[in-house]
Amino acid sequence: MRSTIHILPFLIILLFACSVEENSGDDDDEKTSISISSLENNSIVQDTVLIFCESNNDNIVFKIELWVDGDSTEVCDYSAPFILTWDTYKYDNGIHTLFIRLYDEEGNTVDSDDVDVIVNNFLTFSSTFGSETTSEVGYSISQRSDSSFIILGGIDDDILLVGSDRYGNIEWHQSFGGSQLDKANHIKQTSDGGYIISGTTESYGFGGSDIWLFKTGPSGLIEWNSYLGTSNNEHGGQVIETPDGGFAVIGDRDLLGNGDSDIWLIKTNSQGDSVWTRSFGGSEPEHGYDIILNEDGGFTLLGSTQSIGNGGSDIWLIKTDANGNEQWSQSYGDASNDVGHSMLHTYDNGYLIRSNIQSFGDGNTATGLLRVGSNGEEIWTKTFGGSSGDPGYSFRKTSDDEYILVCSLFDHGDNAYDAWLIKLNDSGDISWEKMFGETEHDRGFSVIETLDGGYAFVGSTNNYGNGDKNNSDLWIIKTDQIGFIGSLNN
C-alpha cells in the first residue's frame, strides 16, 4: 500500500510535465509565426508595392524576407514594424505567388501562407537595333492597331524601315538607298494600311539631291517610288495624304543652283506623280519642314526664312488654299536663328510650333515652343534647355489635351547628349520631364502616345545594344504614362 502511494504522485508529476512540454511547443510555434497583413489573394498590384507583415513575437525575429514564385527577392527587413518594398516592374504582368520567410535568432525559419497577386503594370522596355560595324538611328515612329510599331530611320547613308512587335522585338527590317547619301525623316500611315515616306536622295533622280517619295505596304515592301526635283538640290520634308487619295509634300528647292532655295509645296496623285507645285521665298534661303491639312481643304506650311523677319533665320508660317495659293504668312524670331521644325493644330484652330533656336553659334541651341492663333498672331513663346542637340522631327498632342515632345540635351558632366522627354500643359509649362542616357551620346527624335496611354520614342544610342562611341544603334523606348521605364531612368 505504501508503494502505491509513492507511485501515484510520480505519475501525476510526469503527466503534468508532459502537458507543460506540449504547451511549451505550442507556444514556440506561436512565437515564430509570420503573416502578410496588407495583401489579399488575387489583389491587383502595380509599380512599387509596400508589403506589411506581422509576427506573433517580434523579439525573436532576426529578419524577414520576401519570396516570389519560389525565389528569394533578397528584399528584407530586420525590425518591427516589418515593411517590405517590392518593385513589380521586374516581373511580367500576370499572376505571381509570394510568401514571407521569417528567420529567428536561433536559426529557425518559418514561412507565411502563400498569397497570389496579379501584376498589372504598363508595358515598358528599352530596345535597340543595329550591328557593331554600322550606325543606325530612328527618326520617326508609328504604332499600329495591334500595338506593334514601325520605325523610320537610317543605316549609315541609307534609309531604314523597321517593324517590331509591341515589346520592341524586331520582326523585320528593310533598307533603301544607293551609292550616295539617302535620308528620310517622315513617315505617315496611309488609309490602306501601308506607309508613305518622304526624304532626300542623292543616289537617284535628276542630279544633285532630289525629294524621294515612296509608298510601302504594311510589311515595308515598296509599292512605288517617285523622284521630285531638278538638276539642282531639293530636300524633302513632311508628307501627308490628301482626301483625294493623293499626297502633299513640303520641302525646298534651289531652282537657280545658287543656294537661295525656296519652300516647295508639291501635290501628287496616288502614285506620287506631280499634279501641281508652288514655291514660296525671296532672295535668301528658305526651307520647308512640316505641313498640315486644314479643315477647309487648304494647307499650313512651316519652315524657315532668311528673306524676311528680324535677321538670321526666322520661323515662317504660310497658310494656303486647297490649290496651294498663299492666303497669309507670318514670320517669328529675333536676332538668333529660329527654325520651325514641326507643328500641331490647337483646340482653338491655332498652331503650336516646335522650333530650334540657335543663340550663340552653331551647336549651342535650345528647343522652342511658339503658340499662335488661327490667323498667325503670336500668343506666347517658351524655351527649354540652353544647349539641346538635334531638335527632333515630331511632337504630339496627348489624350489629356497636353503635349509630349522629345529632343536631346547636352550633359556637361558626361560631355554627351541625353534623350530628353518632356510633357507640357496647354500653356507650355512642363508637367514632368525625364532624361535617358549614359556616358556616350543618346538622342531622341520622335515620340508618340501609345494605345495604353504611355509613350514611345525613337532615336539613337551609343551606350546600349551594339552602340559604342564610334557607331550608334537605333533606340526604341516605351514608357508608362509618366515617362518611367525602370532601370534606365536617370
The number of helical segments is 1
Secondary structure: number of strands = 37
The major β-sheet equals: 6 strands, mixed
Mean pLDDT: 89
- Uncertain runs with pLDDT below 50, 5 residues or more? 1-29
Given the C-alpha coordinates, what overall shape results? elongated
Q: Work out the helicity level.
A: under 10%
What's the gyration radius in Å? 32 Å
Q: Report how far apart the termini are.
A: 89 Å
> Which structural category do the helix and sheet elements fall into?
mainly beta
Walkthrough of the structure:
The protein has 490 residues and is mainly beta. Among the domains are: 34-119, Immunoglobulin-like (Sandwich); 123-176 and 389-490, no CATH class. Helix content is 6%, strand content 53%. It is built from one helix and 37 strands. The protein has one helix at 2-31; strands spanning 34-36, 43-45, 48-55, 61-68, 71-77, 82-87, 94-104, 109-111, 115-119, 125-129, 136-143, 149-155, 158-164, 170-176, 182-189, 195-201, 210-216, 222-228, 234-241, 247-253, 262-268, 274-280, 286-293, 299-305, 314-320, 326-332, 337-345, 351-358, 365-372, 378-388, 395-397, 403-411, 416-424, 430-436, 442-449, 455-461, 473-479. The strands form nine sheets. Strands 2, 4, 5, 7, 8 and 9 form a six-stranded mixed β-sheet that branches. It has a four-stranded antiparallel β-sheet with strand order 10-37-36-35, with no helix packed on it. A four-stranded antiparallel β-sheet has the order 11-12-13-14, with no helix packed on it. It starts with a helix and ends in an 11-residue tail after the last strand.
